[in-house]
Amino acid sequence: MAGEGKGDPALPSPSVRRSGSHLTLPRLPGARPCIPKDFGHGSVVCVCNATYCDTLDPLVLPAPGSYVKYESSKAGKRLERSEGRFQSSLRTPGNAAGGWRCHRGTPRAPRTESLEFSPSSHAGPCGSGELQLTLSLCPLPQIPLLCRALAMSKRPLLLFASPWTAPAWMRSNGDVRGKGTLKGKAGDKYHKTWANYFIKFLDEYAKHNVTFWAVTAQNEPLAGLFTPPQAPTIAFTAAQQRDFIAEDLGPALVRSPHRTRLLMLDDQRIHLPHWAKVVLGNATAARYVAGLAVHWYLDAIVPPGCSLEATHKLFPDHFLLYTEACTGFFMFRFAVSLGCWERGDHYSYSILTVMNHFVSGWTDWNLALDLEGGPNWVKNFVDSPVIVDGSKDVFYKQPMFYHMGHFSKFIPEGSRRVGLHRSRRCLLCQLEHVAVLRPDGALVLVVLNRFGRDVPFGIRDPAMGFIETVAPAHSIQTYLWHQQ
């Protein structure tokens, strides 16, 4: 729960860095330290305002023979940078967690961002009852925000969109809220009009120079049956989604001028591999589908090997992408928990787990919310990596933000997962990990320690040598190095 912190820290000049009780100049231009604030939830947030926010030094990869490490911890480190050199052998052969050896492996697809929180509903084109959809887009605050984000980003942003509901006149219950289906069946006027709705959406955004990399066929087509009555949703079975894609949505996208990919499912992995078998088992539907969208909320129910990996083995030409994740939802006591390390830890554990089971990217749902975990017009308040306190004109970067940064800041689009061979297992000090090869040839290793004790371990790259190191209690580390 959001609460009062232990005083508001003064935001320093951008030109200084705190180190214990001393202030020193940053090593490289652009670095700014975290200004910590403790709300009593186990760790700290970093305080930012309109003129000051912590940043990293520009990433400079070390020369061959050296490595760079970034570390965040429950104790308060936030992407703290250090450097070291490879050794010719391990000084301490009996490391508690053993060691890892890298070898090259599986390709990864692009990572993406997401936003679906608003004080009001934004259903798309205005109007009702018009099967020809000669309509224009209602003014939306998302468009200028998207344009600013696209202009500011140093890398291309891949946007995707997911529909929650069709207009009331297309729905079986005659209301945009509550549980319902599209009227009729695939191939009829309602389904073709709804497919055309997707195209009109893409057309109108394109007029503002906003293009979408992908759309999903429907947000949570089955989980929507369990949402609150006021939530907007359309129910589809796997067979209904298959037929809608094959007869209506797929052909409409192909005929359109947009090169937008189509994602199926967009629901929990408990539906895999069954949902994939039904949709992708149909050759007509399969040729329109680029990948499978997955949500994380029920991941604890089914192991990734039985769902994600099984689906990949059946349909290796269709990528898997996690399209929604957040914490603080209905089963949690508090929506917003400022400084909660465990929620960030949950993010990293999920990312590491699914990346090791053929998932290409992972998307946070919210990006930034207020102290209540909104705004949200159906009062679905949850937590977020960034929390805004409008009354003080500040925002707080949560541990979740930095956990995500250990991946997104160092693993660019086009990176490929590489294999890791563990030489020894430790049941009481298990470290989670993933390794990738960047397009520039650098290797990245992310290591998560979820335990309350330090864990020593070693890293072996046959081309470079050994790194003997330690994962501190409740920490996440990112290692980067170039091979010779």
From TrEMBL:
InterPro entries: GH (IPR017853), GH30_C (IPR033452), Glyco_hydro_30 (IPR001139), Glyco_hydro_30_TIM-barrel (IPR033453), Glyco_hydro_b (IPR013780). Its main location: membrane. The keyword Phosphoprotein does not apply. The keyword Hydrolase applies. One of its GO terms (biological process) is cholesterol metabolic process. Residues 414-479 form the Glycosyl hydrolase family 30 beta sandwich domain. GO terms for molecular function: galactosylceramidase activity; glucosylceramidase activity. Its EC number is 3.2.1.45. Residues 1-27, 79-121 are annotated as: Disordered. It is found in: Lysosome membrane. Residues 142-411 form the Glycosyl hydrolase family 30 TIM-barrel domain. Pathway: Steroid metabolism; cholesterol metabolism. Pfam families: Glyco_hydro_30, Glyco_hydro_30C. It catalyses: 1-(beta-D-galactosyl)-N-dodecanoylsphing-4-enine + cholesterol = cholesteryl 3-beta-D-galactoside + N-dodecanoylsphing-4-enine; beta-D-glucosyl-N-dodecanoylsphing-4-enine + cholesterol = N-dodecanoylsphing-4-enine + cholesteryl 3-beta-D-glucoside; a beta-D-galactosyl-(1<->1')-N-acylsphing-4-enine + H2O = an N-acylsphing-4-enine + D-galactose; a beta-D-galactosyl-(1<->1')-N-acylsphing-4-enine + cholesterol = cholesteryl 3-beta-D-galactoside + an N-acylsphing-4-enine. One of its GO terms (cellular component) is lysosomal membrane. Keywords: Glycosidase, Hydrolase, Lipid metabolism, Signal, Sphingolipid metabolism. It is a peripheral membrane protein. Belongs to the glycosyl hydrolase 30 family. This is Glucosylceramidase.
